[in-house]
Amino acid sequence: MGLYVLQLRKDLDVHPKYFGKNLKDYIHEKLVQETEGTCNGRYGYVVGVVQIIEISPGVIRQDGTGLATFTVRYSGLVCRPYKGEVIDCVVTSVNKMGFFAEAGPLQIFVSNHLIPEELVFDAQGDPCYQSSDGGTKIGEGSEVRARIVGTRMDQSDIFCIGTIKEDYLGLLGGPV
């Protein structure tokens, strides 16, 4: 996944009890709490806040709560998967339709149509895809290398479809 540092902005509502000399520290903590680990459909996963660039003067909300809204511009470290990217991931579940794998916050589905023909689904015991000689076995906990063939983003998550049906892709190691 590509890692990038981007300039982002976020509106934060702050309760009046935090107004004072430590306001900037509180805004920084709240920004980290509300953004790190989230997914922005436009930019990808926000991994971390690098630095705060600017905090606007607060605007008192007119709803009677006394909260003030501060617009914070900050640089954030974001990661985003791209079509054609090769990624190492860990298999989390296996079924006859294919398997799901994770690489950090990203979930990848590899359909049985995108798994080499020599690997067949075996439902006996722990479900897995294995070769007829038993030399290759992809099950829960296996490390695989996959190529992303498609992505779909919505406001709060990124979904990927992957393949292991090409040279240099497939099983890297057994269960971790």
Describe this structure in words.
The strands form three sheets. Strands 1, 2, 3, 4 and 5 form a five-stranded antiparallel β-sheet that branches. Strands 6-7-8-13-12 form a five-stranded mixed beta barrel. A hairpin with a 5-residue loop joins strand 10 and strand 11 (137-139). The radius of gyration is 22 Å and the shape is elongated. It folds into two domains: 3-79, RNA polymerase Rpb7-like, N-terminal domain (Dna Ligase, domain 1, 2-Layer Sandwich), CATH 3.30.1490.120; 85-173, OB fold (Dihydrolipoamide Acetyltransferase, E2P) (Beta Barrel). The chain starts with a strand and ends with a strand. Helix content is 7%, strand content 55%. With 176 residues, it is mainly β. This is DNA-directed RNA polymerase II subunit RPB7. One of its GO terms (molecular function) is single-stranded DNA binding. It comes from Chlamydomonas leiostraca.
Q: In summary, what is this structure?
A:
The protein is mainly β and 176 residues long.
